[in-house]
């Protein structure tokens, strides 16, 4: 019989998973059944310099991830006998650089590291934000790949070593944007065979020996033209980056290559000749959006995990000045769609707060923290959860206290008050973001779908419904893995049709739970309006 089991490698910023999705049922009634085969921690580590007093660098433990992936795939093969494919997705923007022989030059740096700060001070003078947005349609975040590359000493020493007089990118020999780059690149300076590979592309190249840049994740680099969906040679030149630093693009749903024989042997693949690696929406959010059971253009989504990505699926990018000013991003989705969305800081703030309590000797379980939060007065203290101080790892309760004081609100002082503040503030940000994207895209949102691990947090789902004032439909929880499997299965010919057809498979495969505004007597519209004012330092009304 045909093999119908696909392995999704889904890497999140706090854990990685290998999940097998089996396609069952006949044409028109297919379902996908997910089995979690492996789950492994993903914890970045601070690496100090060996000399001087430079900062420690927050670095991904890539060898541990690679080990987790191979062990997981081996378990998947052992359990399912054969696999019809592998697809890889992960968080966006981060990358490894390989040399002309394909050897990794340094451990990839975590996007929460502060290394881009000096670059950010200069990059917008050189390439004004409106010029960037007009081409890439991308939100401004300190961790955008382009800014990381400009702060990367590997780019400086291995890639940018050709001294130049400034060339086309800097006609008057102005200093480079980056401290790191030796002298900037004239457009077209070769990268000496070095290549930047986003993490899923790097892992895919390790598995297959084929170097490509998958499109959805490429759209988070700041270097992709949002309209043409090709690398922007113009932006590369203006940033002073070599034009051949990036590999050729590939769309999701293609055959990347076959797993190399040496690795196949390690996976115990005796029962099959080859194992294909399919390209999927390798940006986890792109795969998650595939699995959102959207049924109308007026439906919005929240991909709720470490981040909360709040937005709409659109046929075309919105590149207006108003959209740029609101920092709404146009990221590439599967099948030519646009993920028009806002990054909300997400459950990171909660998980990092709990990690902080544990680190100071006051460990608390999530369930107990949520129970304590339930007992706190609704909307007691609300902050702008997207405040930049909440991005790096550290003392979340302390940072929330600073934000509370700055806006003249009661300081959340125990676990319950801190967690209540986080959940209320997240729901408030969903409300603000859904309104913003709806207005800018000209859509009146009447239902919001939530996918990702956050759907297990019923308190947050009800708060979201209360804040948004429209029904919230929660599920599936493993959105990214399911979207990953769906795109593989379609590429392999086991599913057919458009995203709408794939979403019917999602509906058949998942139990969705609807949360109705006010169902548990939560705060009403006026209270959320008032909270919005307070979160930004306005007096309560
Ligand atoms: C979510 C995510 C998000 C990016 C961020 C870096 O995991 O991929 O879409 O903005 O991580």
UniProtKB/TrEMBL annotation:
Region feature Disordered, mapped onto this chain: 161-186
GO biological process: glycerol metabolic process; rhamnose catabolic process
Pfam families: FGGY_C, FGGY_N
GO CC list: cytosol
GO molecular function, one term: ATP binding
InterPro entries: ATPase_NBD, FGGY_C, FGGY_N, Rhamnulokinase
Span of domain Carbohydrate kinase FGGY N-terminal: 196-290
Keyword RNA-binding included in the entry's annotation: no
SUPFAM superfamilies cross-referenced by the UniProt entry: Actin-like ATPase domain
Record flagged with keyword Zinc: no
Keyword list, A-Z: ATP-binding, Disulfide bond, Kinase, Nucleotide-binding, Rhamnose metabolism, Transferase
Domain annotation Carbohydrate kinase FGGY C-terminal: ranges: 300-492
Compositional bias per record (Low complexity), positions renumbered to this chain: 162-176
Stated family: Belongs to the FGGY kinase family.
Record PANTHER family: L-RHAMNULOKINASE (PTHR10196:SF93), SUGAR KINASE (PTHR10196)
Protein name: Rhamnulokinase
């Amino acid at each position: 019989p045909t093999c119908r089991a696909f392995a999704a490698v889904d890497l999140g910023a706090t854990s990685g998973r290998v999940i097998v999705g089996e396609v069952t049922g006949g044409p028109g009634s297919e379902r996908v059944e997910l089995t979690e085969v492996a789950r492994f921690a993903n914890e970045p580590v601070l690496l100090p310099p060996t000399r001087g007093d430079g900062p420690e660098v927050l670095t991904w433990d890539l060898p541990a991830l690679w080990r987790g992936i191979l062990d997981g795939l081996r378990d998947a093969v052992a359990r399912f006998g054969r696999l019809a494919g592998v697809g890889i997705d992960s968080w966006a923007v981060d990358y490894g650089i390989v040399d002309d022989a394909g050897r990794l030059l340094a451990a990839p740096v975590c996007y929460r590291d502060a290394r881009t700060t000096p670059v950010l001070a200069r990059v917008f003078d050189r390439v004004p934000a409106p010029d960037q947005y007009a081409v890439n349609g991308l939100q401004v975040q300190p961790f955008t790949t382009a800014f990381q590359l400009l702060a990367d000493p590997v780019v400086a020493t291995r890639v940018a070593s050709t001294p130049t007089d400034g060339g086309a990118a800097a006609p008057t020999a102005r200093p480079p944007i980056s401290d790191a780059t030796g002298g900037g690149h004239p457009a077209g300076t070769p990268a000496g065979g070095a290549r930047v590979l986003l993490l899923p592309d790097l892992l895919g190249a390790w598995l297959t020996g084929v170097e490509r840049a998958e499109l959805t994740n490429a759209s988070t680099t700041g270097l992709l033209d949002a309209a043409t969906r090709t690398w922007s040679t113009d932006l590369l030149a203006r940033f002073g980056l070599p034009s051949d630093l990036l590999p050729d693009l590939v769309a999701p749903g293609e055959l990347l290559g076959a797993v190399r024989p040496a690795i196949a042997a390690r996976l115990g693949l005796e029962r099959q000749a080859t194992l294909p690696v399919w390209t999927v929406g390798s940006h986890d959010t792109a795969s998650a959006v595939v699995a959102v059971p959207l049924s109308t253009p007026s439906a919005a989504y929240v991909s709720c995990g470490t981040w909360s990505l709040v937005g709409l699926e659109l046929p075309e990018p919105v590149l207006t000045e108003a959209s740029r000013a609101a920092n709404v991003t146009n990221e590439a989705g599967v099948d030519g769609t646009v993920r028009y969305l806002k990054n909300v800081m997400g459950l990171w703030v909660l998980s990092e707060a709990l990690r902080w309590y544990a680190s100071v000797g006051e460990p608390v379980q999530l369930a107990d923290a949520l129970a304590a939060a339930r007992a706190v007065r609704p909307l007691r203290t609300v902050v702008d959860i997207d405040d930049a101080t909440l991005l790096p790892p550290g003392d979340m309760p302390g940072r929330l206290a600073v934000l509370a004081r700055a806006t003249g609100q009661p300081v959340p002082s125990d676990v319950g008050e801190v967690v209540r503040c986080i959940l209320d503030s997240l729901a408030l940000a969903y409300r603000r973001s859904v309104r913003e994207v709806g207005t800018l895209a000209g859509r009146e949102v009447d239902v919001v779908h939530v996918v990702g691990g956050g759907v297990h947090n019923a308190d947050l789902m009800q708060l979201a419904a209360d804040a948004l004032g429209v029904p919230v439909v929660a599920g599936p929880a493993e959105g990214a893995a399911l979207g990953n499997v769906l795109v593989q299965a379609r590429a392999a010919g086991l599913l057919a049709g458009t995203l709408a057809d794939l979403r019917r498979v999602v509906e058949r495969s998942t139990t969705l739970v609807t949360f109705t505004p006010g169902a548990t007597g939560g705060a009403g519209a006026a209270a959320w309006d008032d909270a919005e004012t307070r979160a930004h330092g306005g007096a309560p009304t």
